[in-house]
Amino acid sequence: MIRMTEPSKITSVPDHQPAAGGIAARARASVGPKYLTGLNPEQREAVETLDGPVLVLAGAGTGKTRVLTTRIAHILSQGRARPAEILSVTFTNKAAREMKHRLGQMLGHAVEGMPWLGTFHSIGGRILRFHAELAQLKSNFTVLDVDDQVRLLKQLLQAENIDDKRWPARMLAGLIDGWKNRGLMPSQVPAGEAAVFANGKGGKLYASYQERLKILNAADFGDLLLENIRIFREHPDILRQYQQRFKFILVDEYQDTNVAQYLWLRLLSQAPSPAAAAPGAIDDPSSDAAAAAQALAPAAARPKNICCVGDDDQSIYGWRGAEVDNILRFDHDFPGAKVIRLERNYRSTGHILAAASHLIAHNEGRLGKTLRTEDHDGEKVTVTGSWDSEEEARGIGEEIEQIQRKGEKLNEIAILVRASYQMREFEDRFVTLGLPYRVIGGPRFYERAEIRDALAYLRVINSPADDLAFERIVNVPKRGLGDATVQMLHDHARKRRIPLFEAARAVVETDELKPKARGSLREVVAQFDRWRAQREVTAHTDLAQIVLDESGYTEMWQKDRSADAAGRLENLKELVRSMEEFENLQGFLEHISLVMDRDGGAEDDAVSLMTLHSAKGLEFDNVFLPGWEEGLFPSQRTLDEQGRAGLEEERRLGHVGITRARRRAMIYFATNRRIHGTWSTTIPSRFLDELPAANVEITESKGGSAWGGTGGYGASRFDDMEAFGSSYSTPGWQRAQANRNRGGGRSGGGRSGGFEEEAATFSPSSSDPDFGSFSSRRRGPLTIEGELVAKSTGTTSEFALDDRVFHQKFGYGRVTKIDGNKLTIAFDKAGEKKVVDSFVQRA
DNA sequence: AGTGTAGGTCTTGAT
DNA sequence: GACCTACACT
């Protein structure tokens, strides 16, 4: 037990958070332990409420991580638990690392003793290794990534004679992943769902996939939790052991948990009861989260000290299984839960916060928080229209240069896009400008071919049954062991029910192979035998180097004259170097399969370019938000697939984007954008209309002179700006705002929010045909539950072949092809173009 | 076995 | 328009 008799061991971390909370709080703080200094009253409550379930609703920039880490420090210093008795889970390795780091600053070395601080998967994996045999695995099982998964499924599909074209392995992988996310074993998948794949074979394929995994001594990501849940259910004694061990549970980003993670937490968070009421109460999770919750709900066990931190307004991962419901339902699941709201924002200025809050207020399914700041209003959020995406990139580039001239750091500038294909235009622009930039979240280190190859070698050494790894490298570098040979090994292996590697060992003793192939295969087998023997006596880093050299793998890239070969060799070196941190090969492989680190480490001053998703948790002084157009943001596909829920998630994404900014948030939209190669005209995002006029400034792009050079488009752009600007001053818009503020946006009589009214006021006043279509596209059968959900595809075109048409930009032309609402038109002057039908009119 | 080309796709992406 | 995959060709 660590009773902190020496307060000096826990030092408060200097924080840029301004001292808040008034005199009373400060007076109290000065009495309490040092690490509590500087916490505001809500934060302090979240830290000090140790007993019973606690939900901390932590809005953006309210000091969430600080609360979590301080809470751990508090538990330790109060002597309530030892480091090894605290279970602390995060989603990403990055978040786990951050917590370890912050804790290290507070506690010194005590962090070393926190073996249960990590991601859901790393902790699940750790537990599974202890009980591997209960899942028909060995403790050295391999963790498969998505690629391995897909290849394995492909094999199963082939074996079942299922057309891989009609029923792609990727799709099945997605289904299985979805089931696992929802905590469903093969037998529990609802029949209707299992049937959607390959005419009813989906469920059976899932079952045989699971069987194959056991044979390969492998688990996929989903299994790391699912097998935990299974073991906990089937072995109450083991569950009890963990329940007793974990005196405190802390969960980060609770709004991102999926059903499986939820079940896992529920099991672990129940007070250990010798009567074992638990397993009975926690049987079948149904397919549906709410029902699953009910199965577990309040009933028997008294939940213990679990503290979940999250923000329903930042739930942006619904598409990969996250259940916002988990957080919305918390006090139902954990009766007597204390809910603490952190609403003091220490990051952004008043205008930025107001804009973000007003936007997110349009969502209905939320717990409701109001972010406040004591900061000054600062600059208004700007909204800037551009003619096309190129001009948008140019404008942002110039703005960045201006910021730079003011002496600000590029590190404090970020561009947050909705979709990664938007990035290229910015990269192009920055290269021409010579502006240093970095892309966050590009291709992952571990996904690179050379890294996967190298790991495959190590995996085969570590686990000879790892057929997927063996198959990957058996002919890399080229050894003359092609498909035919591999197919033969497969047959052999299947017949005798042995791994491919053993099949290879047997086959080289026969004369079934041509002498050449037989020779190389024998060499491969001999090499692996040798490496495995060396493993006992050689440091794992040296072994890795030896393997890469002796296998000819390094040489393969040295001989390669392509541009990226040097980089790949560099990556391999980096891989070997990174192994040093681990005790042995097993530990390294475990880590690498769960981790996706890739930080090049270059900490130069550069602009950051990333997606909105990967920006969560980050903050910058200046944030650019380009591409706020219908179809792109909110994304048409999300709307089509998820309807209202999708729209709300997109809106949360916008909220996340704006709240990344400390001092300046700059939103952009373009009138024309290239989508899948063809230019299309777009309309401004509805989210722009949802921003509060008082905190937003409509601007012409800075450095107006730059437009001059482009020539030709000046007039129409000006029209656009006028039209757009007017949307903030029309009576319709203002009335719409008033409506929203009063009644949450849904006024009776089938009118949908303020949109239609706005559009109606809008279009007659505009002579621009684009805006005429703007209103017409926003009318009609576009509403779900009385609210607008955009729709742009699927409508049959009202045009016919050979129709004579007029387009604002391209002039007169003739329709040559019709594809839904997309027309191919041979223009008299501009040549053949594809355009959306709503942007042309009959001539 | 390795290369060339046609066809399909084209959010977001942790573990 | 670009990239990846799968098949066909040599």
From TrEMBL:
GO BP term (any one): recombinational repair
UniProt region (Disordered), positions on chain: 1-24, 729-778
Catalytic activity: ATP + H2O = ADP + phosphate + H(+); Couples ATP hydrolysis with the unwinding of duplex DNA by translocating in the 3'-5' direction
UniProt keyword annotations, A-Z: ATP-binding, DNA-binding, Helicase, Hydrolase, Isomerase, Nucleotide-binding
Gly residues biased stretches: 742-753
Annotated positions binding ATP: 58-65
Any Pfam family: UvrD-helicase
UvrD-like helicase ATP-binding domain ranges (all copies): 37-349
Ranges of residues in domain UvrD-like helicase C-terminal: 350-617
Superkingdom, natural source: Bacteria
Keyword RNA-binding found: no
GO molecular function terms listed in the Swiss-Prot or TrEMBL record: 3'-5' DNA helicase activity; ATP binding; ATP hydrolysis activity; DNA binding
Cellular-component GO terms for this entry: cytosol; DNA helicase complex
EC id: 5.6.2.4
Protein family according to the UniProt entry: Belongs to the helicase family. UvrD subfamily.
Job description of the protein: Has both ATPase and helicase activities. Unwinds DNA duplexes with 3' to 5' polarity with respect to the bound strand and initiates unwinding most effectively when a single-stranded region is present. Involved in the post-incision events of nucleotide excision repair and methyl-directed mismatch repair.
Protein name: DNA 3'-5' helicase
Source organism (scientific name): Bradyrhizobium stylosanthis
